[in-house]
Amino acid sequence: MLVPGKILLDHAFKNGYAVGAFNANNMEQVQAITDAAAETQSPVFIQVSRGALTYSRMTYLRNIILAAAEEHPEIPIAMHLDHGSDLELVKKSIDLGFTSVMIDGSLDPTGKRALTFEENLEVTKSVVDYARPFGVSVEAELGTIGGVEDEAGVSEIHYTDPDQALDFVKQAAPDSLAIAIGTSHGAVKFEGECILKHDLLEELHKKLPNTPLVMHGSSSVPQELVVVVNKYGGNMPGAKGVDIEQLQQTLGHGVSKINVDTDGRIAVTGAIRKVLMENPEEFDPRKYMGPARDALMEVVKARMIQFKTAGNAPKIEQITLEQAKELYS
Ligand code: G3H
Ligand code: 13P
Ligand code: ZN
Question: Whole domain around residue 226: which residue ranges?
Fold first, then answer.
C-alpha cells in the first residue's frame, strides 16, 4: 500500500530503526525491493532519482511502483523522489502521485555549484509550502554528501554544521533532513578506512531531537559482490563502501532513513555478467534479468535486517494523502 513518507519516518524515528530507501529504474528492481519488504515484513521507500524519471519517461516507473503497491497491500511503501533538483520536478512528481520528495538544495540543479545556505533555504521553503497541502513529506539536505552520480552531481563532502542545521530546520521545517557525516555516493567511498563522524551525528540529533535524519551514500559495497563483477569481466578498482557496523551505530540516534543504490547496482551487474559469461549462447533477457532481480532482493533483504526494519512494518490502516493532509497541515 502506498503511504505518505512521513508515516514511515515517524514510526522509524520513534522506534529506533531506519527504513531502507532503495533506488529503482525498472520493473525488476521494483519487484526485488517490494518482494524483499514483503518477505521481511518491512516498510520501505522506493526512490526514483531525476535520472531514473527521465530514463523511464516519467510515467513508467510510477505505474510500476503502483503495481507493486497493489500486489503488496500489506507493505507500507513510500514512493519517493530522490535528489529532486528544483520545484518544477517536485511539482511533476507530486502530480504523478509521489508520496514523498527530496529537494536537494546542496547543489544547484546542474550539480556543478554548491548552493548557499540562503539559496538552499529558499528552495526548500518553496518545496515545503507546495508539498505540505498535498500531505507529501519533504526531505531536505544540508551539507554536501560527496561522490559521483550521473544526475545527483559531483561534490566534495561538506559536513553538516549543527547550528546551521537547527537554524535551517526552524526556518524551512522539512519533515526530514539529509545530513553529511562522512558517507558519499558511488562505489569508491574511502581510500583508507571508513570513518563516520558519530560525534557529529550526536550533536545534530541533540540540536534536532524531533527531526528524522537521513543518511545518503550508505551502500556498504560488499566485496563478495565486487568479486563477482570483476570475475566475470568487470572492472571496479578501489570499490569500498560504508562499514556496516558503523552504519548500524547510527540507529537510535535520529537516523530514520538510509539510502542504498550502489549495492543493488553491483548485485544486478554481477548477476547479469555471470549469466552472460557462463552462457554466451543466451539471448533471452529473462534469463539474466531474473537472476539480477534475485540478487538485488538478497541485498535488500540483508539491509532491511541490518537497519532493523525487518518485522517493523507499522500496523497502519490505509492512509491516503488526503488524510495525511489533515494530519500534517
Ligand atoms: O544518489 C543518487 C542515486 O544513487 C541515484 O543515482 O542519479 O544516477 O539515478 P542516479
Ligand atoms: P549509494 O551510492 O551509497 O548507494 O547512495 C545512494 C543514495 O544516497 C541515493 O540517494
Ligand atoms: Zn543520495
Answer: 5-326
The stretch 126-145 carries a mean pLDDT of 96
State how far the Cα of 155 lies from the Cα of 291, in Å rounded to an integer: 34
Counting ligands in written order, the one closest to the CA of 150 is 1
SS3 197: coil
* Rounded Cα–Cα distance for residues 93 and 98 (Å): 6
Query: Which CATH number covers residue 287?
Result: 3.20.20.70
SS3 at position 141: strand
Half-sphere exposure of 183 (CA within 13 A, CB side): 27
Residue 178: what are its φ and ψ, rounded to 5°? Answer: -80, 130
Index of the ligand 2 atom closest to the CA of residue 83:
10
End-to-end CA distance of the chain: 22
Nearest C-alpha to atom 4 of ligand 1 is from which residue? 261
Cα 149 to ligand 1 centroid, rounded to whole Å: 5
Strand order through the sheet with 146-149: 153-155, 146-149, 184-185
Tell whether ligand 2 has an atom less than 6 A from the beta carbon of residue 106.
no
Mutate to test the pocket of ligand 2, among 176, 259, 266, 306 (most ligand atoms within 8 A of CB): 259
Number of domains in the chain: 1
- Residue 146 Cα, ligand 2 centroid: separation in angstroms? 10
Q: Look at the chain and count its residues.
A: 329
- Catalytic residue list: 82
pLDDT tens, position by position, 99-120? 999 999 887 877 778 789 999 9
Ligand nearest to the CA of 261: 2
Nearest to 308 by CA among 265, 255, 266: 255
Whether pTM exceeds 0.90: yes
